[in-house]
Design brief:
alpha/beta, Beta-Lactamase, Rossmann fold, 3 domains
């Protein structure tokens, strides 16, 4: 999005773990669900005995039993998390097992569970025919399944199931990222973009949105240089919104965010994850998601992709803000420009004038001569001083703008724009670099009426 042909400096977005005061205990992973579908209880008991106490791929085994295809179907409706099905062929009917496979894949839509056909009567379901015509993943004769072979078969099936789960999760994550980026591209201000990003970061992890977006920023009309601050804050951090980062103290969240800025990498800590968002323009940001126990279900590359994609979108939003700033905000006084004031008046005209509105123009007399006498530096300081006094005079509902080099304007309810009252605020001399400089002003204006064509026309009428 940034207008540059230079390639960005490669950024290492691998995760960094912040120091913790004590090692956290590893989360308990759920057991693999193994369903034995067989009308012989002894077969189920023998299977449980053979694999008792064994962990496969770091997880224990949970055995479920169904004595018929109908029972198995109902159990699978309630437990779609079954990973492996050890399925007999001949039960209530000679082809009950094969018919069940078709219903599992079709009616229930369960394509991830690995189905191992296990039969004691191979003549009822020849191996080549069963593999060809049904979506099964292995075919075994019961008498050949020793304890070791059973362990091998189940381990292979679980490994395949785990891979399918990872592929499905990655696909879902990629779809989520695409939808998130599309939605974020609609934002046209950084705070709006930041809030949307934080909501989607929380959605990616499936946790509540207690989150912060930090970067170098300032409000539209702030005269100060951009500061590293909290641009957006959600959930329990909502009160931190727009505060400078260095004013928040030595909190764990702040430490993680500062570390992410310093090393330009994503940082995980005991209190959450700080996702570093690299920028082509040098205005990096960090999105922090607070959570005591973030689920470790995502491939780290998904988080990296989220960071890269949203960082590009953030650069685009910043570019739009800079263009809008150049068009609508005066760089010297940080007041709205003439075009911005005209749009404000247009909005009021389109909404209808419920109360009398006035446009007050304030012109500095002989400002060009003053500027030539004292120089541009003093002249700029005087303009900033006038702007500050006018803004201090304005209350809610009054907008102050700079509409020309030495002309300011105020627009709002008529009773709040009495020229004499505004002139009093400008009577005192301006203290600039030890000089006391008095200025005189000329006031003009126009009463807005409903048939006024536009804000631009109203400003012209005010001169």
């Amino acid at each position: 999005m940034a207008m540059s042909n230079e390639r960005p400096v490669p950024v290492d977005n691998s995760l960094v773990f912040a120091q913790e005061s004590a090692p956290a205990s590893a989360p308990v992973r759920p057991a693999w669900a193994i369903l034995v579908v067989d009308d012989e209880p002894d077969v189920y008991a023998a299977t449980c005995m053979a694999l008792r106490g064994i962990e496969i791929l770091g997880r224990s085994l949970e055995f479920l039993h169904a004595e018929s295809a109908a029972d198995a179907l109902e159990l699978l409706r309630a437990r779609p998390d079954v990973a492996v099905i050890l399925l007999d062929v001949v039960m209530e009917a000679d082809d009950a097992g094969l018919a069940l496979v078709a219903r599992i894949r079709g009616e229930l839509g369960l394509h991830k569970p690995r189905v191992i056909l296990r039969t004691g009567q191979p003549g009822y379901a020849p191996e080549m025919q069963a593999i060809r015509d049904y979506d099964i993943n292995d075919y075994r004769i019961k008498s050949e399944l020793t304890r070791t072979r059973l362990y091998t078969v189940v381990t292979s099936a679980l490994r395949a199931y785990q891979t399918l789960c990872a592929v499905e999760a990655t696909r879902a994550d990629l779809e989520y990222l695409l939808a998130a980026q599309t939605a974020l591209l609609a934002a046209n201000t950084l705070p709006v973009f930041a809030e949307g990003l934080l909501e989607r970061l929380a959605g990616l992890f499936g946790v509540p949105a207690h989150a912060l977006f930090c970067g170098d920023s300032r409000r539209v009309h702030d005269a100060d240089e951009p500061q590293r601050r909290v641009v957006a804050a959600l959930g329990r951090y909502a009160e931190w919104s727009w505060r400078r980062l260095d004013s928040l103290g030595d909190l764990p969240e702040v430490q993680a965010i500062e570390l992410a800025f310093a090393i330009r990498r994503t940082v995980t800590s005991a209190c959450g994850i700080a996702v570093h968002l690299p920028s082509r323009t040098g205005t990096d940001a960090v999105a922090f998601l607070g959570a005591d126990d973030l689920p470790a279900t995502h491939d780290p590359r998904i988080v990296e992709m989220f960071a890269q994609n949203t960082a590009v979108a953030a650069d685009g939003v910043r570019l739009v803000e800079r263009l809008r700033d150049a068009a609508y905000v005066d760089g010297l006084t940080r007041l709205p420009k003439r075009a911005a004031l005209a749009e404000t008046i247009d909005t009021a005209l389109n909404a209808g004038l419920d109360t009398p509105q006035r446009l007050l123009l304030i012109d500095i007399d002989q400002f060009s001569e003053i500027n030539e006498t004292f120089g541009d530096r003093i002249g700029d300081a005087l303009l900033r001083g006038v702007a500050q006094r006018l803004v201090a005079q304005a209350d809610a509902g009054v907008q102050v703008a700079r509409v020309a080099n030495d002309t300011f304007a105020a627009f709002g309810p008529r009773e709040r724009l009495v020229p004499g009252e505004w002139a009093k605020r400008l009577d005192a001399p301006f203290d600039v670099e030890g000089l006391q400089i008095g200025l005189s002003f000329s006031f003009g204006g126009v009463e807005l009426v409903a048939d006024c064509a536009s804000g631009g026309e109203a400003i012209k009428m005010g001169y």
